[in-house]
Amino acid sequence: xxxxxxxxxxxxxxxxxLPTPPDVELVELDGAIVSINPWPSAQVVLVxxxxxxxxxxxxxxxxxxxxERGKATLAWWIAKEHDHLVPAxxxxxxxxxxxxxxxxxxxxxxxxxxxxxxPAEGVEVGRAETWEEWRAANEVGRVVFGFPEMPEDYLRExxxxxxxxxxxxxxxxxxxxxxxxxSAYAAFGEAALNLFGASVLPEARxxxxxxxxxxxxxxxxxxxxxxxxxxxxxxMSRPICERMGFVFVDAVRVxxxxxx
Length: 260
Fold this sequence. Notes:
The protein is α+β, with helices and mostly antiparallel strands. Helices cover about 30% and strands about 30% of the residues.
């Protein structure tokens, strides 16, 4: 299956190609951009152009940016075109490994035709349009990714930012027997929707919840006039996505820097 270049590029570089959410701060450095988000996960470092002329200096500056904002972990997003930076990153103690929110290998996949099959019976998928819906979806993601519990005032602030940015993306939830057991985010790109953070509670797996969330986001992509999906899949979700028609584009490595 031929993947259009704009879709391929989004699959490989979602953080660099998608619109910046209102709660994300971009800090430009020499040859890199640090993306600061409010979540308790690694903050992404994107390579700009060919990368830093002095990797060690940019690494130190990125750490300073993280410390200033109370962030403990950085994740360098390294596509094959930037493999030449790897020796210098490793020399600075940055390692290709899993970290909460990311896996060591993120597989860029794309879907440019309708997924096979149908949504699962008994799974209700909706778009989070109220505080209660957003809160329930957020809690599923928190549990699945192992994030700590967050104070309600913090969550209320995040929800307000989410509402401000609904022109850039929307949270979806999946419920079984009235209980929210799955969640996923759809980011609105010019070429496709990008799928972020799909989560299904362990006790609800095997019932087609993940499949139903993919179908719902495909329908949303068609509705928006961009009938394509991209995703960066880990080891568990890649085979599921490929069974649903996603095509492998390439692998991206995540290099983790525990900020000192």
